Amino acid sequence: MESSYSKGYVTFKDGFIACVPTILGYVGIGIACGIVGKSSGLSILSVVLMSVIVYGGSSQFIITGMLVSGAPISAIVFTTFLVNLRHFLMSMSVAEYFKETSLLKSIGIGTLLTDESYGVLMTAVLKEKQVSFSWVNGLNITAYLVWILSTLLGAILGNVIPDPQSLGLDYALVAMFIGLIILQIEYPLKVRTKATLMVMLSVAISLYLLSHVLSIELSVLAATLIGCMIGAMTDDKH
Amino acid sequence: MTNINFSILLAIIGCGIVTWLPRILPFIFSKKVTFSDKAKQFMSYIPMCILTALFIQSLLVVNENKMTTINIENLLASLPTIIVGFITKSLMWTVIVGVVTMGLIRYIGLF
Question: Do A88 and B25 touch (CB under 8 A)?
């Protein structure tokens, strides 16, 4: 079995090495996330526990924000669910690749899947590399531990830095959305410029209009579905 | 400092479950069903659309019984962030430039 994997994609250590380029990203956002959490009044334990159990950058910013604003738990959970629906799609394409892997191992891979680890994994798949389960674990577990430690560091720093808002740290989440959007649309924007812009514009306009009649969380969901519908419809013409 | 509020714990566990399920369910499904091309096509737009919606949401200020307005501060900070994001294609640089820009806007006291 071992011999059928591509060179450099076999051991846990190979996976760790593959994770290194993304580490700085986790550290930067993790520290910001920890600082925002601590300065929002969450305990260090809450911040770290969130990283261990939820393990999602954008969701953790949103959960923190909603906890501070006193939103009901149901709304927090529902919003987090929506924010993370994108992982469903990511896992779907990864699952195709690991169809032969046992269910338990597959669940292990999916549990620690992030935007970044997905990117690294799919780049390997694109290069037609045969990756081992140990390699994926090296990639995923390194990222997981780095994330937990970064948010812990941020939460500790949160005591030292008095007002992260004055430093603009609360804006890290919005900036990350911008970064993630750019990574998402980079290719479609080249191949289907008009259609991609139209989908995004339809999301923006419907969100603005819907925000007058629905709660903002529901508006986000409805605007997303409208965007997907327009995207799927215009795709047919090609 | 190390205490945890029960409702916060509940929120974290609830969020943990709804974060975990989308990550693992496709692995269970993939062993049993295959999605139609139509469904796959529709779903392929979800990441782009939901991220756009979340970004636009950060630019909006919802006012009760009044028109929704624009958060000028966030809008202004977004411009250099978008430009740097397109140039570097790096999540880290996008975040750094965004945070620094917002810090500067608040330091100058533009709004």
Answer: yes
